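Practice problem: predict the structure.
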Amino acid sequence: MSRLAAGVVLVTAQEPPLGEDVGMTATAFTSVSLDPPLVLVSLREGSRMDDLLAEQPLWGVSLLAESQRHIAGRFAMKGRISDRLLFEDIAYTRGEICGAPLVGGALAVLECRTEQRVEAGDHTLVIGRVLSVGLPSGDGGPLTYFRGRYRHLG
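Answer:
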């Protein structure tokens, strides 16, 4: 599957009750339906985000631009950096509906509510209804991942 190019997104949510921000880099993300608007993200079973989205139905997605490779890399290093430091010095806004951080300069940002969770091997497929879409001033092409490395189109 490393030979299948994929877009890179940041999935975020707020952990109740204290509102700590949690985020993870994902490449297994896709549109499922336009009517109703549904998306799918695949989460490693038992990961912090999988556990969080089992209890917190609201979450955000930032579609990263090629200039945001450093953000993708930072959130892919789970366990090596304190969660508090992950969002340090990253420009973001809070989703009005989900409250999760949405990365500034992303190509698009989505606020979602979990509709369905499907166990699939060692992953959980989370299907979310898109509640809002934002198109920040993100420029350039999408950040992609291919053969174990971040790439840009061009």
